C-alpha cells in the first residue's frame, strides 16, 4: 500500500510536492490537483523536502538512501545530485536539510552525525574548522532539584546559566585555543581560560609522556577540564554576588 512520507509546498503555494514510499516524488497543481510531474532518482524513503526560499521552481529532497537532489519542478528535471558516501562506512542516511535565507547555500545532517554544507564559491572559510566538533557538555548528565528544575549534575547550575562550553573532539579531547574562541562568549577570553590541547604528565613508570589535558585527573578523580569548568562557575557566581545580584544557586566550594 502506497503511503505519503512527506509533503511540501513551493514558496508561492502554486504546487505541492509529495514523497511516496515507492521512492517517487510527485508534483501537483495546488489549485486543480492535477499531477504535473513524477520525479524518480531516490531508491529509499524520502523524509526531507525543502522549497527554495524565493525561487518557486527549486525544491531539494533527501532521504535514507544517502541521496540529495536539487530539482526544477517547473520542468520536472534534476539539477544536481549528491551521494553521501562515508569512507569505510557506506552511505549515510540524510535526516534533515535547510536552505540559507539567501538561497545560495544549504546544510544537511546525516545519520553519522555529520554536517554537510553545500553552496557556491570555495570552502576555504571552513578549512579552519576541525572535522569533529562537539560541546563538552553535550552528553553531561542532568538532575532535577527539589522544585523539579533541571540542573547540570556537576555544577548544580541550570544548563542555560552555565559558562560557555568548550569545543572538543568525539573523544572529549579539547581543541586548541584558536578554536575555543569561535564559541560565542569566549571570543575575548584570556589564554588561561581556554583549554590547551596537550600537556605532559608522569605515568606509572615515572616517564613523562604527552597527554590530552582533558583526560588528566586530579586527586578526586575529576578531570582537569571539569575542574576548570567548576572554577569558572565559581568565579561567575562570585562576580554576580559582588555586583549585587543573587546567583541561581549558592556558589560552589
Short description:
One of its GO terms (cellular component) is nucleus. With 253 residues, this protein is mainly β.
Task: Tell me what the structure shows.
The protein is mainly β. The chain has 2 domains: 4-126, Methylamine Dehydrogenase, Chain H; 134-220, no CATH class. It is 9% helix and 35% strand. The strands form 7 sheets. Strands 1-2-3-4 form a 4-stranded antiparallel beta sheet, with no helix packed on it. A 4-stranded antiparallel beta sheet has the order 5-6-7-8, with no helix packed on it. Strands 11-12-13 form a 3-stranded antiparallel beta sheet, with no helix packed on it. A hairpin with a 4-residue loop joins strand 7 and strand 8. The longest helix is centred in the C-terminal third of the chain and has 19 residues, at 224-242. The protein is elongated.
Pick out its properties.
WD repeat; mainly beta; four-stranded antiparallel beta sheet; 35% strand; single chain; 2 domains; 253 residues; WD40/YVTN_repeat-like_dom_sf; Bromo_WD_repeat; Methylamine Dehydrogenase, Chain H; 2 helices; 9% helix; WD40_repeat_dom_sf; BRWD3 protein
Secondary-structure blueprint of this entry?
Blueprint: E1 4-9, E2 15-20, E3 25-29, E4 35-39, E5 46-51, E6 58-63, E7 67-72, E8 77-83, E9 85-86, E10 90-91, E11 94-99, E12 105-110, E13 115-119, E14 134-135, E15 142-144, E16 150-152, E17 167-168, H1 177-180, E18 198-202, E19 208-212, H2 224-242
Antiparallel strand pairs: 1-2, 2-3, 3-4, 5-6, 6-7, 7-8, 9-10, 11-12, 12-13, 14-17, 15-16, 18-19
Protein name: BRWD3 protein
Keywords: Repeat, WD repeat
InterPro entries: Bromo_WD_repeat, WD40/YVTN_repeat-like_dom_sf, WD40_repeat_CS, WD40_repeat_dom_sf, WD40_rpt
Amino acid at each position: 500500500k502506497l503511503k505519503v512520507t512527506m509533503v511540501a509546498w513551493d514558496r508561492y503555494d502554486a504546487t505541492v510536492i509529495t514523497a511516496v514510499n515507492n521512492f517517487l516524488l510527485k508534483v501537483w497543481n495546488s489549485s486543480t490537483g492535477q499531477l504535473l510531474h513524477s520525479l524518480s532518482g531516490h531508491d529509499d524513503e524520502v523524509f526531507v523536502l525543502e522549497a527554495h526560499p524565493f525561487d518557486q521552481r527549486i525544491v531539494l529532497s533527501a532521504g535514507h538512501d544517502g541521496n540529495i537532489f536539487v530539482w526544477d519542478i517547473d520542468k520536472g528535471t534534476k539539477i544536481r545530485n549528491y551521494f553521501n558516501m562515508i569512507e569505510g562506512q557506506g552511505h549515510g542516511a540524510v535526516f534533515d536539510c535547510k536552505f540559507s535565507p539567501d538561497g545560495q547555500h544549504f546544510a544537511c545532517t546525516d545519520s553519522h552525525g555529520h554536517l554537510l554544507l553545500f553552496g557556491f564559491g570555495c570552502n576555504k572559510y571552513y578549512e579552519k574548522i576541525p572535522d569533529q566538533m562537539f560541546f563538552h557538555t553535550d552528553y553531561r548528565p542532568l538532575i532535577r532539584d527539589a522544585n523539579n528544575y533541571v540542573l547540570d549534575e556537576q555544577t548544580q547550575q541550570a544548563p542555560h546559566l552555565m559558562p560557555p562550553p568548550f569545543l572538543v573532539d568525539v573523544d572529549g579531547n579539547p581543541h586548541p585555543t584558536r578554536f575555543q574562541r569561535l564559541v560565542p562568549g569566549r571570543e575575548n577570553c584570556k589564554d588561561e581560560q581556554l583549554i590547551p590541547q596537550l600537556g605532559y604528565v608522569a605515568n606509572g613508570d615515572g616517564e613523562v609522556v604527552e597527554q590530552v589535558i582533558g583526560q588528566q585527573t586530579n586527586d578526586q578523580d575529576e578531570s582537569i577540564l571539569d575542574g576548570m569548568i567548576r572554577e569558572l562557575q565559581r568565579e561567575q557566581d562570585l562576580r554576580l554576588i559582588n555586583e549585587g545580584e543573587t546567583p541561581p544557586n549558592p556558589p560552589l566550594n
